[in-house]
Automatic annotation (TrEMBL):
This is MFS transporter. Its main location: membrane. It comes from Streptomyces virginiae (Streptomyces cinnamonensis). It comes from the Bacteria. The chain crosses the membrane at residues 23-47, 59-80, 151-169, 181-199, 236-258, 270-291, 303-322, 328-354, 366-389, 395-413. Keywords: Membrane, Transmembrane, Transmembrane helix.
Length: 417
């Protein structure tokens, strides 16, 4: 029978304040580097490369590449998490994933056909999710439950910081794709070297470390067993719907700016992205910190998660009512506020409903299916909506509806307030 009680993982002897701050800082750097790759490459460089290769079919081609590559992300994240749990180590997976991503990005920058672009992005998604699975597991490994809202907020700043840096770098290198891809590979490799160089793995002991090998069928059953837990399952559903609504729109923002929004004279879509992204990310940083700190202080997670998901759904109406540059600025700010608070507090909520502490990386990897899985569906959904329903207005409405349903999915969670 599934239990709703969460036993914290054995936390190593409390480090000194300076060392604890150092770990949080390097986790912020590691997550920022990851988000720089996802946002800079995924939102600017990849769409630019696709548009140059297949200008007439860019929406459909980007949808196929994004969808297929996300299958690799969905598979590799939890598998790498389970292997990381089994090995009892995080650093080899962090460093190996980062260096393999550098190689994948170098390959991606050298190709000139849609097929090879798709293969390259699949390689990058697979290797970056190996890196992500191990980095994600460090918070439940080393941070006590009472401090996870704050820790998740600090780590969550990786999205606004990394997203802003990533889009700014990408907008400056969009006309020099090979250089841009190499810069992003170097960013994630350096972040991994810093984290693994300054913080060695803490030896893990106990039943999980000493257990004999498990048959593949039993591993697959155990891999999905976390979804049998009532609260974890609803957290998974809420995250999946929110991410699906968000990426259905954000993944096509470069094309939205070029084909749907009336931009001021002389402002190109990549340049517009370089303005909108900092606006969104500053708002996201503010709501990430405030949401994490206040959720710790008030010991309440669900209200922050539910309200922020609902807000994310409602703000999708802004570009529908006002498909202008001003409308996009307002939309970006409000969407950043909503998504930042959601991701920070929802991450803390999930760490409190993990079924088994010794399987933290594996179960966080399962949760990351709710991040990567919807990205499989999002490009196909977005492409179908845009082509079948006649433009980007229906896309905003579909994205908003998904986020609102995601807000409702938080209500059934019982073990966390």
């Amino acid at each position: 029978m599934a239990t709703h009680e969460v036993v914290d993982p054995p936390v190593p002897p409390a480090p000194g304040p300076a060392r604890h701050r150092g770990l949080m800082l390097l986790l912020l750097v590691a997550n920022s580097a990851m988000m720089a790759v996802y946002m800079g490459v995924g939102s600017v460089l990849l769409p630019t490369q696709v548009a140059s290769i297949a200008p007439a079919d860019k929406v459909a081609v980007l949808g196929v590449i994004g969808g297929v590559s996300s299958i690799f992300a969905t598979a590799f994240n939890p598998i790498a998490g389970a292997l990381s749990d089994r090995s009892g180590r995080r650093n080899p997976w962090i460093l190996g994933g980062a260096l393999a991503s550098l190689a994948g990005l170098a390959f991606l920058g050298s190709v000139t056909t849609a097929l090879l672009v798709g293969i390259g992005w699949c390689l990058v998604q697979a290797t970056m999710n190996i890196y992500q699975a191990a980095v994600t597991a460090i918070v439940p490994d080393r941070v006590p439950a009472a401090r996870r809202g704050t820790a998740s907020a600090l780590v969550g700043l990786g999205l606004p910081i990394g997203g802003t840096v990533g889009v700014l770098v990408a907008s400056q290198t969009a006309e020099h794709l090979r250089t841009g891809y190499l810069v992003f590979g170097a960013i994630v490799a350096v972040a991994a070297l810093l984290l693994t160089g300054f913080f060695r793995d803490t030896p893990r002991s106990g039943p999980a470390a000493d257990a004999p090998p498990v048959p593949v069928r039993a591993q697959l059953a155990a891999f999905l067993s976390s979804l049998a837990n009532h609260d974890f399952r609803w957290a998974f559903i809420g995250r999946a719907l929110m991410v699906l609504g968000y990426f259905s729109v954000v993944g096509y923002q470069l094309y939205i700016l070029g084909d749907h929004i009336a931009l001021p004279a002389g402002l190109t879509p990549p340049a517009a992205m370089a303005v909108l992204t900092p606006v969104s990310m500053v708002a996201m940083a503010v709501s990430t910190v405030l949401g994490g700190l206040l959720s710790d202080r008030w010991n309440r997670r669900k209200v922050f998660v539910g309200v922020s998901a609902a807000l994310a759904g409602l703000v999708m109406v802004v570009p529908v009512v006002s498909p202008t540059w001003t409308g996009m600025l307002v939309f970006s700010a409000l969407n950043g506020l909503a998504f930042g608070c959601f991701m920070a507090v929802d991450t803390a909520l999930v760490t409190l409903v993990l079924p088994r502490a010794e399987d933290a990386a594996r179960d966080m990897g399962v949760l990351n299916i709710a991040n990567a899985g919807p990205q499989i569906i999002a490009p196909f959904v977005a492409s179908a909506v845009v082509t079948a329903l006649g433009g980007y207005t229906p896309l905003f409405l579909v994205g908003g509806a998904l986020s609102l349903i995601g807000a409702l999915a938080i209500l059934p969670i019982r073990s966390v307030r």
